[in-house]
Design a protein that fits this description.
The complex is a heterodimer.
Chain A: E1 2-7, H1 11-23, E2 29-35, E3 39-41, H2 46-50, E4 61-63, H3 65-70, E5 74-77, E6 80-84, E7 89-92, E8 98-99, E9 102-105, H4 129-139, E10 146-150, H5 168-183, E11 192-195, H6 207-219, E12 222-225, E13 230-233, E14 237-240, E15 244-247, E16 250-254, H7 261-265, E17 289-291, H8 304-322, E18 334-341, E19 344-350, E20 359-364, H9 365-380
Parallel strand pairs in A: 1-2, 1-9, 2-5, 9-17, 10-11, 10-16, 11-12
Antiparallel strand pairs in A: 3-4, 6-7, 7-8, 13-14, 14-15, 18-19, 19-20
Helix pairs in contact in A: 1-8
Chain B: H1 7-46, H2 55-62, H3 65-77, E1 98-100, E2 119-121, E3 129-131, E4 135-137, H4 148-161, E5 164-166, H5 174-179, E6 182-187, H6 196-201, E7 204-208, E8 219-221, H7 227-232, E9 238-240, H8 247-257, E10 263-268, H9 273-280, E11 287-291, H10 302-305, H11 312-325, E12 332-336, H12 342-351, E13 355-358, H13 360-367, H14 392-395, H15 400-424, E14 438-440, H16 446-452, H17 457-493
Parallel strand pairs in B: 4-13, 5-6, 6-7, 7-10, 10-11, 11-12, 12-13
Antiparallel strand pairs in B: 1-14, 2-3, 8-9
Transmembrane segments (chain B): 12-34
Family (chain B): Belongs to the glutamate synthase family.
Pfam family, one (chain B): Glu_synthase
Chain lengths: 389, 494
């Protein structure tokens, strides 16, 4: 039997497992999933947690192990340290080396907090459950300015040009915070600022969405400092280049991202920590190594939707290779909804970033409802929804 | 002839009967309840007071109500603790016998602007540990000490506080490493083999040579182990070997695997600490942790924890004095054992420590507002929530989010209190604390400062040595004189 290993069990990893269970017969493959957590944290919902709802953090832990076991997959709770593509083995922290015929790497990218002088998780964040929860607790006591910071993205600059690690959730937090503070009649005393290395808000979205976001930021008096370069972060201030100091009573950071240590250690990266792949998400050199989601160089911007798309493409490519069929290549497009608070949302479906012409945008309550419904169904079905994108 | 009972007589009869029944039930129930309670209490009194309410007795022997209430206040508010009614420090732990000398008119205090609490652990290493405050989460092992949930909570707390957490003697817990921004691997002598990969994942490795509460004895556990741990040891007992591991091999091995990170050693605070330090200097040690007599452990035998070792404060003073005397400045000294809050931390740093590791205040903080789930229906103590020696249904009731929130509050308040201390001393960084800023409040504490003030220690110790020799000589001479006199009297009597 063909021995498949999936590293990671978040958006990309769980979608990969889903497609493996859908496309392959049980007698064809054995599947082993390796992850550090037995519970998957559904990160897209954490923006709402950070914006004043700390108790909701635990609602977004999804138990995946039972789902895998029902599908006949084996789950190993461990840390993947290194992939040896020559020996076709994965070195784990506490288990013996794990052999594979095909590996799907979906472990995500590592935050590079240390890339900015003084910056650390203690400054607040939104990308993990504990960061979002603590940010929310801290915000309940905040009486001064709030700064939402976005770190830069360190990568080769290909296949698309992006400057910010991911500015969309930062804007989402800013909007939700504005709404939450207004509801509690504290907004007039607390200025909100968004600092981003991007030139425009929502740089990965299309121009229509960017225009709406710019207008909405102005209307709600959220200051945007674009094209910023952060030099140093202190306990209550941020120093921007050249010599501009921003005071912050509370910060919320989307940290810089610089690829994956796992990819680097395994010699599978492109020199920047990202795994270079072909249009089927297959490693450029090792045809039995697939990269899915944030760790993949072509997964830009780092959105859950892209990870799900890539999981589908990668597993279909393996299935096609094993059954001597042809597979569909990865055709990227951005599909995203930003909650903007007050029951409204901004829906974007665009491929402008990839040189296309499609740019569909809708701003209103149904968009917000659609995102809420998607999140709820993702949690209800533990990531394996009846209709997968 | 049948007796006819009227309605009013019936009511009276029923009332009397029901009163009698109620009285009997109360008496029997009360008697049964008291018997059951006494049996339960008697049984509890004979069990290991690790996770039941009797642990409070031991806690109150080493912690005062003042310290417990102030710790809980910090966990709740996240601000520096306060209390009314004046100073309440009347007991005599070593650190409470010392106080800081506030700056006044002479010397006039500089106005500190940004007070930095940042500290670098193992500065000689290529990748030293930089912490936002000089406080580390003490090593408490998964499975052999704490539950997975408690370890996960502490890892999150460490990341949010800008400090490091340690694996403790237990096996590797993937979640802990994933959450901790800075993670210390404690190299214990447990049955789990720390693979090379685990060493490479660490930001620092600390070789465990024993601890204040346990000495260097072996520890064996076979009951109530978490499932993951049971699988690891294949259902057998967990035995953590005692004695000293082969240090020359270990240093070479660890440096070969991960040459960039600091390598530390955890030492028991002994009365021959200088000799231990001298031996350790043969190897590339970056960090030394001295674990004092006051240190706590989940499994500490009372005969060890209560009757072995020297207090943390003495160990720190003597270790720092030895390092300074030998011009060794690259080694970070971490104090651990019996530390309860910011004042203790600042005093230990003033006496020579670079940072302080603590566990008990954090366990109090993570349990804050969660104990009410148990009381008054059970006899479980607060540690039932976090200690790994109970059935798993209790562990599920531990609210990680609430625990993290309270422990982060504790760290925030401790950082605030450290800044307040530094401000009152006119200092702008924690590394500027020194023994000259301390005053002894009791005669007992005076030698602490005499030894730690490095201008006089040599003279003081020489004088003390001379006095002791003189006393001994005098005693011998008096004894000989008495013997001679006795013999003379006998001879003259004969």
């Amino acid at each position: 039997m063909h021995n498949v290993v999936v590293l990671g069990s978040r958006f990309g990893g769980s979608a990969t497992a889903y497609w493996l269970s859908k496309l392959f017969e049980r007698r064809e493959i054995t599947v082993t999933i390796v992850d550090q957590w037995t519970l998957m944290t559904y990160r897209p919902a954490l923006v709402r947690v950070a914006a004043g709802h700390p108790a909701q953090a635990d609602n977004w832990h999804i138990p995946m192990v039972r789902r895998y076991q029902r599908a006949g997959f084996r789950f190993i709770r461990d840390t993947a340290y290194q992939i040896d593509p020559r020996a076709q083995k994965i070195h784990l922290a506490t288990h013996p080396p794990l052999p594979y015929d095909t590996v799907f790497v979906a472990t995500g990218a590592d935050p590079a907090w240390e890339a900015i002088d003084g910056l650390g998780p203690h400054h607040g964040g939104v990308c993990e459950d504990y960061l979002a929860r603590q940010t929310a607790y801290a915000l309940s006591k905040t009486a001064g300015p709030i700064v939402v910071g976005v770190g830069p993205l360190y990568y080769s600059g290909s296949p698309v040009r992006l400057r910010a690690s991911l500015d969309v959730p930062a804007l989402e937090v800013a909007f939700l915070l504005d709404a939450w503070l207004s509801k509690h009649r504290r907004r007039q005393d607390i200025p909100i600022t968004v600092i981003t290395p991007a030139c425009v808000p929502g740089e990965s979205l299309g121009p229509k969405s960017q225009a709406i976001l710019t207008r909405e930021l102005e209307r709600r008096q959220i200051q945007l400092i674009a094209e910023s370069k952060v030099e140093q972060v202190g306990d209550s201030h941020i120093t921007l280049y050249p010599q501009r100091v921003i005071k912050a009573d509370q910060m919320i950071w989307i940290p810089p991202y610089h690829g994956s240590q796992l990819a680097r250690r395994s010699g599978l990266d492109d020199g920047w920590g990202w795994i270079p792949t072909d249009k089927y998400c297959r490693h450029e050199k090792w045809s039995n190594v697939y990269a899915v989601g944030d760790i993949n160089r072509s997964a830009l911007p780092k959105l859950g939707h892209i990870a799900m798309l890539q999981a589908k493409v990668a597993v279909h490519a393996l299935w096609a290779a094993m059954h001597h069929k042809s597979a569909q290549p990865f055709t990227p497009f951005v599909l995203h909804v930003i909650w903007t608070g007050h029951g409204r949302g901004l829906f974007t479906l665009s491929d402008i970033l990839y040189g296309g012409k499609r740019d569909w945008v809708y701003f209103g309550a149904p968009a917000s409802l659609a995102k809420t419904a998607f999140n709820a169904s993702y949690r209800f079905f533990s990531g394996w929804m009846p209709i997968m994108p | 002839m049948a007796t006819v009972i009227t309605a009013s007589e019936g009511i009276v009869l029923i009332t009397v009967l029901s009163t009698l029944v109620t009285f009997t039930v109360v008496i029997v129930g009360g008697w049964w309840g008291i018997r059951r309670l006494s049996r339960h209490l008697e049984h509890l009194a004979g069990t290991v007071p690790r996770t039941n309410l009797f642990e409070l007795f031991f806690m109150l022997k080493s912690w005062s109500w003042r310290e417990i209430l102030l710790t809980l206040q910090r966990s709740e508010t996240g601000k520096g603790a306060q209390h009314p009614m004046g100073s309440v420090v009347t007991d005599t732990p070593w650190l409470d016998q010392l106080a800081f000398d506030p700056v006044t008119l002479d010397p006039s205090p500089p106005v500190p602007k940004d007070i930095s609490l940042r500290v670098t652990i193992g500065p000689r290493a290529k990748k030293p540990l930089v912490l936002e405050l000089p406080v580390l989460v003490a090593p408490m092992g998964y499975g052999v000490g704490l539950t997975a949930a408690a370890k996960t909570a502490l890892a999150q707390v460490a990341a949010l506080a800008g400090t490091a957490t340690s694996s403790g003697e237990g096996p590797f817990l993937p979640e802990e490493r994933a959450y901790a921004h800075k993670w210390i691997l404690q190299w214990s002598q447990g049955p789990w083999n720390h693979q090379k990969e685990v060493v490479r994942l660490a930001d620092m490795v600390e070789i465990h040579l024993g601890q204040g509460a346990e000495g260097q004895i072996h520890i064996s556990r076979h009951k109530h182990l978490p499932r993951r741990l049971k699988r690891m040891v294949q259902g057998k007992s967990v035995v953590i070997r005692g004695g000293t591991p082969p240090l020359p091999y270990l240093f070479t091995h660890l440096k070969r695997i991960n040459p960039d990170i600091p390598i530390g050693v955890k030492l028991i605070a002994s009365n021959h600490i200088e000799k231990d330090l001298q031996i350790l200097m043969r190897w590339p040690v970056d960090v030394i942790t001295v674990d004092g007599q006051e240190a706590a452990s989940q499994n500490s035998p009372a005969v060890i924890s209560d009757h072995f070792g020297i207090p943390t404060v003495w160990a720190v003073i003597r270790a720092r004095r030895w390092l300074k005397r030998h011009h060794i400045h690259h080694i970070t000294l971490i104090a651990s054992g019996g530390v309860k809050g910011a004042a203790d931390i600042a005093k230990l740093i003033a006496l020579g420590a670079d940072a302080v590791a603590l566990g008990s205040p954090l366990l109090l903080a993570v349990s804050h507002e969660q104990l009410s789930k148990f009381l008054p229906l059970s006899w479980h103590g607060p540690s039932r929530l976090v200690f790994a020696d109970h059935s798993s249904h209790m562990a599920a009731r531990f609210d990680v989010g609430q625990a993290v929130h309270h422990a982060v509050n504790w760290f925030t308040s401790t950082a605030d209190e450290l800044r307040t201390i530094l401000e009152a001393l006119g200092l702008d960084k924690v590394a500027a604390l020194n023994p000259g800023l301390l005053i002894a409040k009791t005669e007992n504490a005076a030698p602490l400062l005499a030894v730690s003030r490095l201008e006089v220690p040599f003279l003081v110790t020489q004088l003390a040595g001379l006095t002791d020799s003189y006393k001994e000589l005098n005693h011998c001479l008096l004894e000989q004189y008495r013997l001679l006199r006795t013999q003379k009297e006998r001879i003259s009597g004969a």
